[in-house]
Design a protein that fits this description.
- α2 crosses α6 (93-101).
- The chain has a single domain (3-110), classed as Winged helix-like DNA-binding domain superfamily/Winged helix DNA-binding domain (Arc Repressor Mutant, subunit A).
- The protein has a two-stranded antiparallel sheet.
- The protein is built from seven helices and two strands; from the N terminus they run ααααββααα.
- It is mostly helical.
Length: 124
């Protein structure tokens, strides 16, 4: 079996990674914003993002001290699954809660204390 197919399937086999993808369907987010919405520790969110990036589901861009993540399918498997995932789980209570909280998440508020810090957590 093709390795890219297996990577995509493994990446989407974790409920927390599915939540990350569902949040990124709405808009580009930094780790602080994802952490706040998903309720996981920053290192855990970063690990999930790495798995999603390696599968070609997510890409990042750096702007100043911020790193933003967004959906970016790079393989036919990633593209197909992301297109289908948009319609899936719309009625799931956890996904609905996540999507309801997302508009109030603001990196400038969440990461304000980290702005002057040069640690890797502050740069995410």
């Amino acid at each position: 079996m093709e390795k890219s197919f297996i990577k995509v399937m493994k990446a989407l086999s974790d409920p927390s990674r599915v939540k990350v993808v569902k949040a990124l369907e709405v808009r580009e987010l930094c780790v602080c914003e994802l952490r706040a919405v998903i309720g996981l520790a920053q290192p855990t969110v970063s690990k999930h993002l790495k798995v999603l990036e390696e599968a070609g589901l997510v890409i990042s861009r750096k702007e100043g001290q911020w790193v933003y993540y967004r959906l970016a399918p790079s393989s036919i498997y990633a593209k197909t699954l992301l297109e289908n995932l948009r319609g899936w789980l719309a009625h799931d209570p956890e996904v609905q809660k996540l999507l309801a909280e997302l508009p109030s998440v603001d990196r400038l508020v969440l990461c304000a204390g980290k702005k002057s810090n040069n640690s890797p957590a502050a740069l995410s």
